[in-house]
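Entry 12.
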Amino acid sequence: MTYSEFLKKRRSVRDYEQKAVGIDVINEILNEATLAPSASNNQPCRFVVINCRETIKRLSDESKANLLKDFEQKKASLSPEYIELLKNDKFNVFYNAPCVIYIVGSKAVHSLEIDCALAASYIMFAAAARGLGTCWIGLGAHIRDPKLKAELGMDENLRIIAPLIIGYPKEIPAASPRNAPKILRVISQVKG
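Predicted 3D structure (tokens):
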């Protein structure tokens, strides 16, 4: 498969086989993620790997409760379909994936969102190259319980940027339509 074909075939996956992803495979993927660029080569990304279904469910429940609380207190806006999903006890924001990887970093790092997003992209590509599926789950970032954060190895100076689910896909979803690039302007040196 060419690089271009690879890019076109990578998909966000939300339906997984019950097969676990080995920690050796996760370590290979995370080693490749450390090759992602970061501002000033600061490399601020840290990773939390959760492959315990009970813990993943607790993280989902915590995130759902916090999102609903924020919505009720008018600190967040949510579409009606998300509100219904978040109220459903059976809905797991991580889609019952066998593994979650949190990409986190210091709140003091100005470029943290960008640096972690680049690392997330590398994880997604490294996983796809191994036949695994991934999806960035923004709904899963709302973890506030200090005990749960401590269980994840996170102190108060760290912030969750990218919760990624990873696993063996039941199927690869069809491609969503993509728009052509919207180039506002091309400025070139004119040779006289």
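Annotation: The first strand starts at residue 46 and ends at 50. Helices lie at 3-9, 23-33, 53-72, 80-87, 112-129, 146-151.
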